[in-house]
Design a protein that fits this description.
By secondary structure, the chain is an alpha/beta fold. The protein is about 35% helix and about 15% strand.
Length: about 400
């Protein structure tokens, strides 16, 4: 995989370089609530601009249905990107149309433009190779070189991620190079003990990575909504808590395999519960109560790991040499149910281990809860991409960057 350093050494001055970034940031109206993904790609864009390239940045945002939708416009991102770069970023109001062509034509050496949301064109996400390829051809006509730096999208077989690199000389950006190096540390050159913390809502989203990690991890800690399916598989009642009954056979098999392989599975011993799911828009006191994980009343819903579980999980991370964390321990957006997630983040901060926060809600939680990002070994920009890499899957966007 060629690196951006090699590309710059070969000369990018005066050339149009297409940078596929992941600028899929959360928005409240037109206000960006977490700019982490924008900041993550700034070093690549700045490096190209400083080398005299005409930089064309492109990304998706949200899930528009193949047509322009104002709520998913990247216009606020263009403004924030300009602030971070310290230079104006031109904004094209379409992807491959008149505005895109005019904006690219107006670029001068060292300047930067951002195209409108790639998913406003149906060719970006099409499952039809011909339609997707046709859109890639239109994108390729805008540029001379391609840099892939949208790690959060590399598990998608999309036109700008998979098809476009085949049509232009290409290289990996600084972010992708870093992400891949970190993930190799979690799969090929692991310092032990290796502890994995998994949370989030659905166990079905994590089955593949659990299956793969059973062959590699020394310790797997389970929290979040997915924990209740594990507790149910152990014969405990879970009240109104999130439960995927159809996954109980798979979960039971994983627990048995873990025991046979000597992999320690750590589940909550208590949970913080409430009769009703909280209104996240109005975070008033919801009268939470801590109850044993083996005795959740029928009228309560578990919404976070409890105080004893926090102590237990922290103790299981204290001696680890490598920690990978993906998924919050509860409804961290509400203060009554944020302490479990906070406890995991704090345990990683306190640990001398190589710590990796696996993107998605975990990365958002770290920022929302006020932790210093530099206190972690690495915070990934791609939750789904990280998990699929750890499952051993081939990621289309990475395969496309291989020479």
């Amino acid at each position: 995989m060629k690196t951006i350093d090699e590309l710059v050494d070969e000369g990018v001055g005066g050339k149009r370089v297409f940078v596929r970034a992941d600028l899929n940031v959360p928005l409240s109206g037109t206000t960006i609530t977490d700019d982490g993904r924008i900041r993550a790609v700034v070093p690549t864009i700045a490096k190209l601009a400083e080398a005299g390239a005409k930089v064309i940045v492109a990304s998706h945002l949200g899930r528009p249905k193949g047509a322009p939708d104002p709520q998913f416009s990247l216009a606020p991102v263009a403004a924030r990107l300009g602030e971070l770069l310290g230079a104006q970023v031109a904004f094209a109001t379409d992807t491959v149309g008149e505005s895109a062509r005019a904006t690219v034509d107006a670029l001068t050496d060292g300047s930067v433009a951002l195209l409108e949301n790639l998913r406003f064109n149906p060719g970006e996400t099409s499952k039809d190779d011909t339609e997707r390829g046709a859109f890639a051809e239109q994108l390729a006509a805008l540029a001379e070189l391609y840099v892939g730096d949208g790690f959060g999208a590399v598990h998608r077989k999309h036109a700008s991620v998979y098809d476009l690199p085949a049509r232009l000389p290409h290289a990996a950006g600084l972010l992708i190079a870093t992400e891949v190096a970190v993930l190799r540390k979690l799969t090929e050159d692991v310092s032990r003990p290796y502890a994995v913390v998994l949370g989030g809502a659905k166990v079905s989203d994590k089955l593949g990575v659990i299956d793969h990690l059973l062959e590699r991890a020394d310790r797997i800690l389970i929290g979040g909504g997915m924990a209740y399916t594990f507790l149910k598989a152990q014969g405990h009642e879970v009240g109104k808590s999130l439960l995927q009954e159809d996954q109980i056979p798979a979960v039971t098999e994983y627990l048995e395999r873990a025991k046979a392989r000597g992999v320690e599975f750590v589940l909550p011993v208590d949970v913080v519960a409430s009769p009703d799911f909280p209104d996240l828009r109005n975070p008033v006191d919801t009268n939470p109560v801590a109850v044993g994980a083996d005795a959740i009343p029928a009228d309560l819903e578990g919404l976070d790991i409890g105080p004893e579980s926090r102590k237990l999980f922290a103790s299981k991370l204290a001696d680890a040499a490598t920690v990978f964390w993906n998924g919050p321990m509860g409804v961290f957006e509400h203060p009554d149910y944020a302490e479990g997630t906070r406890a995991i983040a704090q345990a990683l901060v306190d640990s001398p281990a190589f710590t990796v926060v696996g993107g998605g809600d975990s990365a958002a939680a770290v920022r929302i809860l006020g932790f210093d990002e530099t206190a972690f070994g690495h915070i990934s920009t791609g939750g789904g991409a990280s998990l699929e890499y750890l499952e051993g899957k081939t990621l289309p966007g990475l395969a496309a960057l291989e020479d």
